[in-house]
């Protein structure tokens, strides 16, 4: 009778051989004395056959039923279930008992379909693979017995392809449908949906079932545009970015599976660029339009609006990009200073003008609210002569026409502030500045071009009064002493906010026309006299 000894049975046996199944197995055939008469191993190829259809000797047809893939059986087949009284001339004698050591490699049925087993699925799955989508995935490809024949992991490169348009074997086209990014599944494909009777001519033999362990990393469709997910929009949004604006923003850049490829935070510096001008990839150009300062949004960019098929640096080809951005500030090169008055005293008749000496408090911040500086923390005012270049141009403009006690907010674009370079360690490059200002004191300045004016009539013998030793020459010491006396007695006034010695020296130098360190009566002229002489000459 037929004898079956199960020498190895795998722990997992999801499927056993039934009549009508197609199997691939290895075997060694011997006589009872151990003499070998045949072996599939010697031929380097499995024996491939349908079970229960009379294509095998009856004993083997029976012995294979119930076997699992990777199971090993030792089978004793009597002559009546083998080659009987005739045998096989030259190979198997008449009435021979045959022994077969069988290892089942593969098993399938013509009615099989693609089998999909998902063993990990992300909690969030906003989109699944559809026909004509382009996917990037990693896989391990094995036969049904677990033998590895290919792996994208070994090549350290994803497999990138369209789905459902014939670029893949039919079984893989089916098996990838419905997957989420990050999902892991096992796709088992019968040979008639894989490489069929002939195999691939290399690693995959004919009639082989294939098992692919797949993880989906990326997914898009050539028709996709960018996708925007608003994560935080400030309640107050007075202005949204437009084409031509200059933005400063932070970002984390990841692939669709969450792999980080770049981050401005790691460089501790914002990314600064014009929007809508082609300075960034097309998807980012579009995704940065319509944002508010302080807004956080996620921008998902398909590869044809990103770095395309070639990729760049750490970004692989055909990769979908995900940017989580935080807009720090933006401006337009055409922007001027913006002034918002919060309080103005009812008695506001004297307004600040160029040349006035101002004392004021301020809080300076970036557009996102980051504090840069504050006079309040220093416990003293900031003092300047308006219009003299002692502050950035935008502040000179923002302090104009202000009265004592007034409070206002002055917003200064970078081209009227500290420009592209900023102030190292203090003000970032291309930063919009916000100053909250309170004017505490105003000393009226002199008319433009004057460093000293008389409060009354000018003496007709002015040179003689300055020339105290009456030697016909005025030295700097004499000139300085005379001007100081006029200021102290209220007869004259110096331009406020400047160093006394510097102003006096400047005035003296203007009078010392030959530069010899002395002023003579012929050199000495008042400003209105200089203007008259120039006019006469013209």
From TrEMBL:
Instruction: Specify the species.
Output: Dryoscopus gambensis
Region of interest called Disordered, as start-end residue ranges on this chain:
511-538
Write down any Gene Ontology CC term: endoplasmic reticulum
Does the record's keyword annotation contain Isomerase?
yes
Ranges of residues in domain PPIase FKBP-type: 20-108, 132-220, 244-331, 355-443
Where does the UniProt annotation locate this protein? Endoplasmic reticulum
Taxonomically, which superkingdom? Answer: Eukaryota
- The gene it comes from is Fkbp9
What name does this protein carry?
A: peptidylprolyl isomerase
List the InterPro entries hit by this protein, alphabetically. EF-hand-dom_pair (IPR011992), EF_Hand_1_Ca_BS (IPR018247), EF_hand_dom (IPR002048), FKBP-like_isomerase (IPR051989), PPIase_dom_sf (IPR046357), PPIase_FKBP_dom (IPR001179)
Q: Where is the EF-hand domain?
A: 454-489, 499-534
Q: What does this protein do?
A: PPIases accelerate the folding of proteins during protein synthesis.
- EC code: 5.2.1.8
Name one molecular function that GO assigns to this entry.
Answer: calcium ion binding
Q: What class of enzyme is it?
A: isomerase
Q: Keyword Transferase: yes or no?
A: no
Major place of residence: endoplasmic reticulum
Which of UniProt's keywords are assigned here? Calcium, Endoplasmic reticulum, Glycoprotein, Isomerase, Metal-binding, Repeat, Rotamase, Signal
List the catalysed reactions: [protein]-peptidylproline (omega=180) = [protein]-peptidylproline (omega=0)
């Amino acid at each position: 009778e037929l004898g079956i000894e199960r020498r190895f049975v795998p722990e997992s046996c999801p499927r056993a051989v039934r009549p009508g199944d197609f199997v691939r197995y290895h075997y060694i055939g011997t006589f009872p004395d151990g003499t070998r008469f045949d072996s599939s191993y010697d031929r380097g190829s499995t024996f491939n056959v349908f079970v229960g259809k009379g294509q095998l000797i009856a004993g083997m047809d029976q012995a294979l039923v119930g076997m699992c893939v990777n199971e090993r059986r030792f089978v004793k087949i009597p002559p009546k279930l083998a080659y009987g009284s005739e045998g096989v001339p030259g190979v198997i004698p008449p009435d021979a008992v045959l022994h077969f050591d069988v290892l089942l490699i593969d098993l399938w049925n013509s009615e099989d379909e693609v089998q999909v087993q998902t063993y990990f699925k992300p909690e969030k799955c906003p989109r699944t693979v559809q026909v004509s989508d382009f996917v990037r995935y990693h896989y391990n490809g094995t036969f049904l017995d677990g033998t590895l024949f290919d792996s994208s992991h070994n090549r350290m490169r994803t497999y990138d392809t369209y789905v459902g348009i014939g670029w893949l074997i039919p079984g893989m086209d089916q098996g990838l449908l419905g997957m989420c990014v990050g999902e892991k599944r096992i796709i088992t494909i019968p040979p008639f949906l894989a490489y069929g009777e002939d195999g691939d001519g290399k690693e995959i033999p004919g009639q082989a079932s294939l098992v692919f362990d797949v993880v989906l990393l990326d997914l898009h469709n050539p028709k996709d545009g960018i996708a925007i997910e608003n994560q935080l929009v400030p309640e107050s949004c007075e202005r949204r970015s437009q084409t031509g604006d200059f933005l400063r923003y932070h970002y984390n850049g990841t692939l669709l599976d969450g792999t980080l490829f770049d981050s401005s935070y790691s460089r501790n510096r914002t990314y600064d660029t014009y929007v809508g001008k082609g300075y960034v990839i097309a998807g980012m150009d579009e995704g940065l339009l319509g944002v508010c300062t302080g807004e956080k949004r996620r921008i998902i960019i398909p590869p044809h609006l990103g770095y395309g098929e070639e990729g760049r640096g750490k970004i692989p080809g055909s990769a979908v990009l995900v940017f989580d951005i935080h807009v720090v500030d933006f401006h337009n090169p055409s922007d001027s200073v913006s002034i918002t008055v919060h309080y103005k005293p009812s008695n506001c008749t004297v307004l600040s003008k160029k040349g006035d000496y101002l004392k004021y408090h301020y809080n300076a911040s970036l557009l996102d609210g980051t504090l840069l500086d504050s006079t309040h923390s220093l416990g003293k005012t900031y003092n300047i002569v308006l219009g003299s270049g002692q502050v950035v141009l935008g502040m000179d403009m923002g302090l104009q026409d202000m009265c004592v006690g007034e409070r206002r907010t002055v917003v200064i674009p970078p081209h009227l502030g500290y420009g592209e370079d900023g102030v190292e360690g203090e003000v970032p490059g291309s930063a919009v500045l916000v100053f909250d200002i309170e004017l505490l004191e105003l000393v009226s300045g002199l008319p433009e071009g004057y460093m000293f004016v008389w409060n009354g009539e000018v003496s007709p013998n002015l040179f003689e009064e300055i020339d105290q030793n009456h030697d016909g020459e005025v030295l700097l010491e004499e000139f300085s002493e005379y001007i100081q006396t006029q200021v102290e007695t209220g007869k004259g006034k110096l331009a406020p906010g400047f160093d006394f010695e510097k102003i006096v020296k400047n005035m003296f130098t203007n009078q010392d026309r030959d530069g010899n360190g002395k002023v003579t009566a012929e050199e000495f002229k008042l400003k209105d006299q200089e203007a008259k002489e120039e006019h006469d000459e013209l």
